[in-house]
């Protein structure tokens, strides 16, 4: 209330307040004086009051009445200020209260949508503070504990007047912020502010405190609203932390499935790989690649596609990559590696998923590269000659994880200097634009024919860009591209 507004009618206001209080039951009640433009409104509220009737005030009031909100009964009256008309009606005030109630409900709905819209745990405290200020309080400080444990620290502070933030921060540094034990708001002792700390509790865990400050007392409806908002904010904070923890665990597991590295030096061999898993949070999917040295002038490579995408496919990806590396370095030839991998996938039982694979061994010779390779149900490998001629160079054999009796035989291919071998997964060949696939009518061969005399990296990038531009919508399938070029 503006202090000067009531100075001229102070005695009448005190007398009217006494009259209203005299009608209260012998239980706690609340008195509020509100400056209403051309009048002073005096409200005396009490919960669980049985009185329904009221005696008209004896003084010169412009309007008076009794209103109910839930279990709270409010006796109120207005005194006109000098020079004012004092023309508000009972219905005006009741409508204002109803309108404010609707406004609070809309505020809570909007706040819930904002809080639910972020899964970044560092953003939630900032959102809480900026939702609260200035609607519920002049400033808001959100305290959290590292990893949900230990002492509370200030995570975010916001003030309606940004120039006051630094001074308020210094004041809060010396304030005793209570630890939450239940949902009851707790007072915070600050010199110039009425401050309340609302616990942030979710799923039985204390996540921190939300401290609100304002120049005057906290009305009951504001305090109740802040308490409700605190519960929603705590749940949003806990959801964001759980999501972040799960995302960190997923990333750590996915990175463990990526190849440990490709050879730094490959004399006589120029190579490049492109790998793009489907999904915003996936680093590993059902497609995979690998290239590793097995001797001074020999290497093994693999490019494969596990049925499906996501974590379940990534589990089989890890099994395939580790099995290939282990068996190849133990000296098993290409056919033996593929055969044993087939058995390993079948032994996974219900968790098994079928797998297509292009696996080969590269040996450097005086006139290029000799390759022994097997295509187990995989899209055909293509060889590009410097003249622009493109041809398929391997015979497709049984895919893996389906037939226990499957037998595999390696094909032998020679790459002369300048020749390129391209291996891709079906994320390339089956890239769809309407009813058309990228590889319809030899589309991939035509793309590769345009890459004569390019480096392995340039070929891989040309294919990747063509896949991206083939359709407007993002690809829903993992994609891997492996390019080998004889120097």
Automatic annotation (TrEMBL):
Enzyme nomenclature, EC number: 3.1.3.16
TM stretches of this protein: none
Top-tier EC class: hydrolase
Residue intervals of the PPM-type phosphatase domain: 269-486
Protein name as catalogued: PP2C family protein-serine/threonine phosphatase
Keywords, sorted A to Z: Hydrolase
Matching Pfam families: SpoIIE
Organism name: Sphaerisporangium corydalis
Any GO MF annotation of the entry: protein serine/threonine phosphatase activity
Keyword Hydrolase: yes
């Amino acid at each position: 209330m503006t202090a000067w507004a009531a100075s001229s009618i102070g005695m009448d206001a005190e007398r009217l307040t006494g009259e209203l209080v005299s009608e209260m039951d012998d239980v706690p009640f609340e008195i509020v004086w509100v400056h209403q433009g051309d009048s002073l409104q005096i409200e005396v509220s009490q919960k669980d009051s049985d009185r329904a009737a009221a005696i008209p005030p004896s003084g010169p009031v412009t309007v008076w009445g009794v209103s109910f909100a839930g279990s709270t009964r409010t006796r109120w009256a207005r005194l006109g200020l000098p020079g004012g008309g004092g023309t508000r009606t009972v219905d005006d005030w009741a409508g204002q209260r109803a309108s404010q109630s609707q406004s609070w409900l809309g505020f809570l709905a909007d706040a819930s949508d904002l809080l639910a819209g972020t899964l970044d745990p560092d953003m939630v405290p900032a959102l809480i503070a900026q939702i609260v200020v200035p609607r519920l309080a002049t400033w808001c400080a959100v305290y959290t504990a590292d990893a949900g444990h230990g002492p509370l620290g200030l995570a975010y502070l916001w003030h309606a007047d940004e120039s006051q933030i630094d001074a308020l921060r210094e004041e809060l540094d010396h304030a005793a912020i209570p630890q939450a034990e239940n949902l009851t708001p707790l007072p915070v002792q600050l010199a110039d502010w009425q401050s309340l700390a609302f616990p942030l509790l979710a799923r039985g865990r204390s996540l921190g405190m939300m401290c609100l400050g304002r120049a005057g007392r906290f009305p009951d409806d504001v305090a109740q609203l802040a308490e409700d908002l605190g519960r929603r904010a705590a749940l949003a904070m806990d959801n964001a932390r759980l999501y972040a923890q799960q995302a960190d665990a997923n990333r750590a597991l996915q990175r463990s499935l990526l190849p440990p590295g490709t050879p730094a030096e490959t004399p006589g061999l120029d190579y490049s790989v492109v790998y793009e898993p489907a999904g915003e949070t996936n680093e590993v999917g059902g497609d995979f690649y690998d290239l590793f040295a097995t001797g001074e002038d020999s290497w093994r490579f693999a490019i494969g596609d596990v049925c499906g995408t996501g974590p379940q496919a990534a589990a089989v990806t890890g099994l395939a990559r580790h099995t290939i590396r282990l068996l190849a370095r133990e000296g098993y030839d290409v056919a033996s590696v593929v055969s044993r991998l087939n058995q390993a996938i079948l032994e996974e039982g219900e968790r098994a998923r079928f797998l297509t694979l292009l696996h080969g061994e590269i040996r450097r010779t005086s006139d290029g590269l000799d390759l022994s390779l097997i295509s187990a149900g995989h899209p055909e490998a293509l060889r590009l000659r410097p003249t622009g001629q493109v041809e398929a160079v391997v015979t497709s054999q049984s895919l893996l994880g389906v037939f226990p009796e499957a037998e595999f035989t390696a094909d032998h291919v020679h790459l002369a200097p300048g020749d390129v071998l391209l291996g891709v997964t079906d994320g390339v060949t089956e890239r769809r634009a309407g009813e058309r696939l990228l590889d319809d009518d030899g589309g991939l061969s035509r793309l590769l024919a345009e890459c004569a005399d390019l480096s392995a990296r340039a070929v891989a990038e040309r294919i990747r860009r063509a896949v991206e531009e083939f359709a407007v919508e993002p690809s829903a399938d993992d994609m891997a591209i492996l390019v080998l070029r004889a120097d």
